[in-house]
User: Fold these one by one.
Assistant:
Number 1:
Amino acid sequence: MAIQGYSDFDGLELARMVAENEVSATELLEEAIERAERVNPQINAVVYPYYDEARERAYAGLPDGPFTGVPFLLKDLYLLYAGQPMSNGSRIFADYVPDHDHEMTTRYKAAGLSIFGRSTSPEFGITATTESILHGKTRNPWNLEHTAGGSSGGAAAAVAAGILPVANASDGGGSIRIPASCCGLFGLKPTRARTPAGPDVGEGWAGQSTIHAVSRSVRDSAALLDATAGPDLGAPYYPPPPERPWLDEVGRDPGNLRVGVIKTAFNGVETHPDCVAAVDHAANLCRQLGLEVEDAELEIPEELRIALWNVVRPSTLVAVQDRAAQLGREPNPEDVEPITWQMINSEQPSAADYIRATRAVHAIGRIVAGFFTGYDLMLTPTMAMPPFPLGHLNLDRDDMRAQGEDVAYTVAYTSTFNSAGNPAASIPLYWNEDGLPIGTHFVAPYGDEASLIRIGSALEQAQPWASRKPPVHSDA
């Protein structure tokens, strides 16, 4: 029997319903599975269904946590789940089944989440659309001919389509915030190392990559961060702990914050008028909330910005080489996408280049820290362009330079804060005349997710977005 109003509830409300015996965890799981089976043929957001294993866990009784019984998807990118397949969006990992859990998977289970499958990702998360030779195109529920973003596009499409209220996502250059923008969701990238990367590595992309979620409500994101944040055993570093639980920040007065508005892309690309309009709209909402809003500037030297590719390229090479070694052979062009093959076979940075790249990452962090000596928040577009048609940024093309130039429009405002390590969030406050969501990007000082949750919650109350449903939705 369908659960009345399922897609109108966020994860915490569904968990309350389970706790008060209004619905069972197994009923919620079956609801999510039925919705996935119904809508996924249109959006292609869910791969590797773990339905039988999820049913066994639900029937046996899930741990008592803040999200007990809430259906959940892991992103198909480095989030290990023992005994269940994971491909990283790549043919070379097509038959890979890990033998242990990622620390985040362990924490998701402890929170009571009902993990029933994986959401799609592009190969190794290295582009801003979720398309791959292995799994095909993930489509945006707001317009099936447009991207859901990347690399957490499957997670965002599944949440936007009402399959579940919140889903795992990760962000190495914008991969939580870009899909959230494309699909009309709240997407918070936490502070560097806020959530664990272990047990196999200490950090991803020299600390630029971090793990969290996309969600319909701000409070789900806050509560999930409460449940998963903190260093794991042997973590190399960890940011300052919060003053109070992040869930307690929801509904709290954001205070008399000074907001610096930037509408010029850090990498020099031209920003689409729709994205500028979204920022202007958000700035006006902030003024109505009593915040001090003014134009600001932040310059990131080009030599620092481009240095990050001397982290991403060798990281991708190592992923391919290590998997090929597990298979007992050399990698070949049929293992990976054409752009990936070019990337790993191009001249690789030297050890000295890698050291200079990590210095650049840290230098960007110091520049950004200087900005926040004068401001409490930064406001920018999330992307320099609206959600774009499918086929524009897929890795199945033959020009690595053109790929980089095109990707620049998607990460123009986001990747700086992966390098700097600051928390940042895309908030859905604007839809253009084509009916496509255009996210607005807020950035806070290092370690200050609290301010993002407070402003996100205030804007959510001022202009609620969760009731907006795309044309392709599991309610239909």
Note: Residues 274 and 433 are 9 Å apart (CA to CA).
Number 2:
Amino acid sequence: MNKMGFCITGSFCSMDDMLEVLKKVSQNFDIEVFMSEHVDEMNTRFYSEKDLKEKIKEVIHKDIHTTIQEAEVYGPQKKLDVVLVYPCDANTLAKLVYGINDNAVTMLIKSSLRNQCPIVLGVYSNDILANSGKNLLTLMNMKNYYVVPMYQDDYKKKPNSVVACKNKVNDTIKCALNHQQYQPFLLGYKEV
């Protein structure tokens, strides 16, 4: 069975979507979960950090990796077939563009890129069609980065916001494993 690094960053409103995607991909991959420090430590109006971790462990039946040290070995020693960042927030996009490595997620990606491992990004951001968009487009032009198709989730109230389409994750992973970007990556609302 192929091995996947499943990374979770701080788009807190998307944790129900994340759990749904985690259940789906765990049917086809041996999963190792990695969390950014914010997801690891923060209680939010959506989940307490304890409850969220319990729900994740119900799916993977393993410990969750939360430190740079735990993630670093997945480059040279424990190689992965694919890394999925779901949700991937705008803060993480910016760190990846500039090579900033300061948590388990960014370390895992850096370690995995050395092995030409595909990195699949499921973007959730309130400003991706504004200031953060340049980081997404930069990553799309960098080798081994692939994007889950996305759509505007509320174009009237939040015109700059997009979310990844959870129904397109498996197709995107299949393409990424062949080093191709799934198309189309921008969806109209009726296509979701």
Note: The chain has a mean pLDDT of 92.
Number 3:
Amino acid sequence: MHLELDHIALTLGGKRILDDVSFEVHDREFVSVLGESGAGKSTTLKVVAGLVFQDEGQVRFDGTCVDDLPTHKRGCAIVFQDIRLFPNMNARDNVAFPLKMQHVRKAERHREADELLAAVQLEGMGGRRVGELSGGQQQRVALARALAGKPRAMLLDEPFSGLDEQLRDDMRTLVLDLHRRFGMTTLMVTHDPDEALVMSDRIVYLGEGRMLQEGAPADLLLNPQHEAVSACFGDTSAIRGTVAGGEFSAGKLRVPAPNRADGDAVLVRVKDGGVFVHSLSA
């Protein structure tokens, strides 16, 4: 699915939440919407999903305006930060719920739910209640439930923010694997610059409801066009990756690394905006 936001504007309670926001997400592309709290990131996602209606502009899927379509007819699945599983159901029934709403027979929807639980590395755990699952396991169930509706686009609203760092890394890897395996267009909201850098084909940076810059991860990292973008990527941080043939890579991030030995490396960002690649190979 090719998503387009065309001059989206929205005012709530007298405050301009989104102001002339335009960008595209190409078919099967993974795009992150990055920015500080209050930038309008989650609102943008809700506009795409049809949970909030804009005052101006259009949302188009594959070139067709969907502004008059309700959420359940847009072909999108959304995974929220607070997960929103049904506490009275076990994992299998949570995942199978969208199929139940489509009147799929019980045996078939349970079979599909078990297959999806296996896809998110929860094989054999369908009978467990939500309260018996860890935070990371609940997030995997939420992903499986979203996939059960066979969406053409996946919308992720800061899905890893409640997890510890190791679980975050595991979930990032899993989400990218599911994105590729199911061939979906994916739009993710995050406030974590490292997360956006390593997961995204492109990044859209929002500030105070306006799009300040969009492009490949390396474009925003190395050539910020706004002081807010520069500040976001200027905080001291290190990303582990590898160097091969003069290029540093970590996930989808690619940065030139001339005169660096092939092998394990770390990309270091410093507060003045500098980016350095250090080889870890002996």
Note: The chain has a mean pLDDT of 92.
Number 4:
Amino acid sequence: MGGVASYLMKHYAEPVRLAELAEKAHFSLYHFIRVFKKEIGETPHEFLTRCRINQSKNLLITTPLSVEETARQVGYGDVNTFIRAFRRLTGTTPYRYRCRSIL
């Protein structure tokens, strides 16, 4: 599963279909998710979300991109979904994170 994790880390901004990853690993979707979680410690979706949010934190601090553009850059098509995921993992909104980090 380390190869799948590396793939997700490199391709976090692209649309990811877990069924395709499972097929490439020669697992059913449900078995793939179970094995991934056992080996990596989180589900593929949780892992991908964490990769995207970590990259967005970097973009928020180092670029002048808007929150909307940052969301697109890390693979979110909907800014509200991005903000909810960001808040869930960091405890704050992207805007507040940027403001606090710049000070």
Note: The chain has a mean pLDDT of 94.
